[in-house]
Write a sequence for this structure.
């Protein structure tokens, strides 16, 4: 069949994408289903069985965990990525690896069209489609939830269930949770449904990756993380295991931090498309690693470089959130991030306990930036305190002019406001 | 006596400043002692008695708590102030109010000289002196710890003790802690001494304002904070008190958060003078209020304004850390901060528990930025999903060019690195 | 008639908007025509006559010159506005005043719909519509050049001419220039048509507001500009007039600078919608005033404030270019701009000559920032050169660490690359 | 002799450094004189003869022109470097290459001390010494103009002349110009003396590298500059030569632009040490190349990348101005600059005429960013104008909320201020 009628659909096995799969087939398309394994819990065989039963030509399941950690999560840690001061970008980080792999799948199976089940109000549609268009501008997109012929037909869940019944689409017998969630190695997110009331706390059973801090163990877990070139290379748990591979280390930290209730965030954020929405996020390992990385940078990165990189990290985070991973600016920023991390190496001792992560100590033997002797208030070895007088005097020149002008203007600085 | 020999000395009653007081008198100066009450624990009568006994002309004790909270701490909350991603600036915030009040004291008591007991390696000397010079460029400064005639004479603690013995300076019978601390409403800091080994955890008994998270109550404390124009105006504790005055509210939060182990930070930071040093900080109320304020901004501040204010807040924080409070740039930045907060109003529900603060929910009835209906994934009321297609298509124009160029350059974006 | 069928159309009298006017009427709309006088050359009576002849209910001509200068052009001067390092934003500055006045006209004449003749590829459609939607979200927009029913019918100029002939739309007998232009007080722009080949120089007869530098007078024109609060308040031409009103002053400078060939810019710029395009701009007065303003800021603004304001000015410029004048971020930025200009006052002596503007001298008697005595290399009055040694020593601390680390890494800084 | 008494002195042959040379010898030092050839006009043999006659052990003259252009000037062009919106950094750019070479000379001739004749109020002392300390923290510095024993003895020019007479220091018979100047390939600067009155125009005979625009040729000179990776690689003069080597090209452009009066700047700037000073600068080639580079970036650099690089270029410029070339932040920034320039290639056609440089046209055949077809207002090939409607609608979401809030607050955006 001509590639013009071949669609590569992001298929999760859920009611929405099953409906889309069937609908596409009924519209005359041949559908190749694609599902990325980015660390979520899933009955993979069941998904494949369902896709094929519904008429998919094939079901591709692509394990992207390793590249997800190495190419997306670790750069995020290197630049202390965060969005609007709170969100660790878990979903945003997964989208580029998924989108890229889906384009590769489309190429392999001769599809000229890509499709997804994202809603028309969210960030994910933007992230997938911008990534697809950058990766291969010649591909077409079918976004059913933005097509009136689709979204008017399926205006509510009842319409979907009716269609499912008519088309032999199996529907899970467990009732749908009154919110949606997105799970991957980096985090699990919870939004929409009852969470759309930001003045109500998230229900206790929302969280899947962290235990409730109130239910966490009564004894803290201590461990140390060793960094090299700004990424974690070793995890040593006190009285426990030592883990070294990037994926294994990240997973182990997810377990440890999650078991201690670390990594919950509940915010109202600004979506790229201009709406505010409430999101709840569970990011155990990311939370710990971001803190550890900031700490080791304190020992190993020059103050002015830190200040520049804070800006760079913020720009990188905005790129990711807005779906601009495959962009010239992200490439440029990441080049700086990598460069800035060459000498970020050392070990951070930490503790997680009932919802909080704490840095206890750190060492960076290869860096000369921290010097106990220089820092010491008890010795003047190699330091001339008189120099500071000159430093202050020169810094004061423009401040004295400011103060003098204020006096002249009748607003002396000595006055409290 | 001529004002040229009159010194206004920042006097704490400790061994260092008592030595300086006596030394100044021996050098022929008349000394007016000054101590700001910025919320630290102190036996005020004892300090006064000691100063007068040592020969000070008078001891001024100036309660600055209210202006400290209103003019410094609250703007810090409004701009989510933080230094190097961790430090909440507790000491930096107190310095401007203290320095300004000391200049006023110097004016009142006809002193042309100011003096302090700060070391020559720290930030505080810079903060005090830049503030003094801005407030009144005509004042002179005596900084004994930067004068060879002083620091060579008092090269170690033994020299200070010997001088104390010879000059009837009373020395506390409790042995000095092997670190130094600075206490005010905003925080208590701990540094130097045994803390100069950043690879060793801070001793358990360092912390004075927060209980150890492991010893914190087994039941969380819940409360809500109401903001108006970006500052907290009401604290309502679940099953407890309601507090409204700015100073009272801040103190109450210090108690609540501290009792639950919230607010500890242990970092290696970059001092203004180019050295790295390790600091431990206890900032219970600041920690909670910063988090609450970020949260309520999520509901009430436009995304682009947030992004601009993140930069402004960062610049403001650097001004404060570097002692540039009395500077034209801080004035300019703060003008923006105040302006940005006009409509930051609402209520945040929180919980503190064993070392962590959590946001549970929030509401901002006066803001139209969050709209449940608009945000909802379950309705399209007032939203045309087709618009997003156009939005994506236009955003993609330059990304498609980027992807096409990459293909031409032999580095297609579909390739994993 | 119901306001739902009443359109307020931005009408210029040209072939495009005349076609739209007629087409709207044929589609059943009642049309109120609107034309803003922002300083362009126009036969106003002729435009009105034409609009009414074609069936417009009325023709509103609104003189916005004064608010254009005071509310848009002068803030641009205050923040040294520029886009992509070259473009002085002439068109971008006019759009907000025009859009706002058109909304007022729509309100006055009971129109619920606004319309314009902008193309679908340009910036202006975005600027108008974003401004309209911010000013009154309840208004609808008809953008014919983005409606397939319109743009497919009028696919080329021949279709427009045919429609004109059929509908008695008078067409100018002078042949259309092979490019388009937009004229206002701030500038005249030239783009599209033969200018779309950026490798060919703009034809000599493109420029309407500046003489060719090669044809400019052989004698320079000298003048001085007096600033107060960052805006020009007096223009004194050597051997000539003195002008004080903001609008009059701006117009006089347009004449003087234009007559000397000053203000041409020819660039390839990035449109908001992701395309690059070539634009030629004639902005005589803006060019001179931007230079003069930068110069007087050199005398009157603190270095750190300058550095912050450079960033603010850049953000403001991007807002304007992208049609985000009516946005919370522009309001925030402009608040800072105004605040930063309180003490920007003084006089700049300049010369324009054959295509270039030159600053010759300046004075700012009310500012204490420049001090001949302090700056002087010939005296040390009030300056201790030893202070600089300390200043350098402290600044060097982190650089010495950097140099030492480089030596250890085998990349000594002494090596040329 | 022990290296502890061996000084490597930056020696120019002038009265100041000749006095310092003699003074150092009288103080018991052995002096190796060092002079960098960075393109200034100099009678090199005469300088050497004078140094040796005064007792220098040797006179090193080091031709650094090639590395100056390649390592400093070209990166400045790549990032469109400018300080405070006007100054092209000519002196700042030369300092790092000179300082580095002087350290190499000190190493070669076993000197542990470096010395210079910079004044205590200027930027150059900071630039030299920070560079020296970064390149080799073990070196000592003698800065006579900051040593009371020196500057009190030589309080005025008469003292220097008297010392010269007593010590057989030859003094030039041509009277000293009433200002100082610093000449190198990048520019010639003029400051101090009579130029310290910023309200008086610089005398006509100040400028050495540009003719007065009024005296420039009546016929423009046209040429094109070809860029590759952001640096000029070919200069083709209309009806004249073609130049390709970096140094030769830069020199040729200096001649052409200087002969047409292009490159003069007269400003009041903020020195690093907090003072404002007036500087006049002649930078013919830099002026032309900065403009050409900005222009070719318009064709070849993505808009978002441009915006990031504007910030990077500004930071780089501040590093250079403040003497922070040898710093980790400059290294980081320059890494980004280089990276951003990979695809900056093309040709810019220009004209210089009586004080102004003009871009006439440009082409960049290897870039796909500018597309005549896409940009064209006359065709819709490959463009769906409807997309822009969606783009605008989504961008408007938050602006509509802003406008609605303004109406509610009683400040509708339709109101002129």
């Amino acid at each position: 069949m001509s590639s013009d009628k071949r669609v590569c659909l992001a298929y999760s096995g859920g009611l929405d994408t099953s409906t889309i799969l069937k609908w596409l087939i009924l519209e005359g398309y041949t559908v190749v289903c694609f599902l990325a394994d980015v660390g979520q819990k899933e009955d993979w065989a069941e998904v494949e069985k369902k896709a094929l039963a519904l008429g998919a030509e094939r079901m591709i399941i692509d394990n992207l965990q390793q590249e997800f950690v190495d190419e997306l999560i670790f750069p995020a840690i290197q630049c202390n990525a965060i969005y609007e001061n709170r969100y660790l970008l878990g979903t945003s980080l997964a989208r580029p690896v998924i989108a890229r792999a889906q384009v590769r799948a489309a190429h392999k199976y001769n599809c000229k069209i890509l499709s997804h089940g994202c809603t028309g109000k969210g960030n994910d549609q933007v992230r997938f489609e911008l990534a697809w268009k950058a990766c291969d501008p010649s591909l077409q997109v079918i976004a059913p939830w933005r097509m009136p012929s689709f979204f008017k037909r399926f205006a509510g869940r009842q319409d979907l269930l009716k269609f499912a019944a008519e088309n032999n689409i199996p529907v899970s017998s467990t009732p749908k949770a009154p919110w949606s969630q997105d799970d991957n190695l980096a985090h699990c997110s919870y939004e929409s449904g009852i969470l759309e009331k930001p003045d109500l706390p998230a229900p206790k059973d929302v969280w899947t990756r962290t235990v409730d801090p109130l239910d966490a163990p009564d004894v803290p877990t201590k461990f140390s993380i060793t960094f090299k070139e700004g990424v974690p290379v070793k995890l040593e748990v006190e009285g426990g295991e030592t883990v070294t591979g990037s994926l294994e280390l990240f997973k182990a930290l997810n377990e440890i931090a999650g078991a201690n209730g670390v990594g919950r965030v509940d915010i109202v954020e600004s979506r790229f498309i201009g709406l505010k929405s409430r999101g709840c996020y569970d990011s155990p390992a990311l939370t710990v690693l971001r803190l550890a990385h900031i700490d080791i940078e304190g020992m190993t990165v020059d103050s002015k470089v830190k200040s520049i990189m804070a800006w760079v990290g913020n720009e990188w985070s905005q790129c990711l959130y807005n779906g601009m991973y495959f962009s010239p600016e992200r490439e440029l920023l990441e080049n700086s991030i990598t460069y800035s991390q060459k000498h970020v190496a050392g070990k951070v001792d930490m503790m997680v306990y009932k919802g909080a992560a704490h840095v206890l100590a750190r060492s960076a033997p290869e860096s000369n930036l921290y010097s106990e002797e220089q820092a010491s208030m008890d010795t003047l070895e190699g330091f001339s305190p008189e120099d500071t007088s000159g430093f202050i005097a020169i810094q004061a020149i423009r401040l004295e002019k400011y103060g003098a002008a204020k006096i002249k203007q009748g607003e002396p600085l000595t006055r409290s406001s």
About this structure: Chain B has three domains: 3-64+89-176, 182-301+343-363, 373-408. The first strand of chain B starts at residue 6 and ends at 10. The CA atoms of residues 34 and 102 of chain B lie 7 Å apart. Chain B touches chain A through 113 residues (CB under 8 Å).
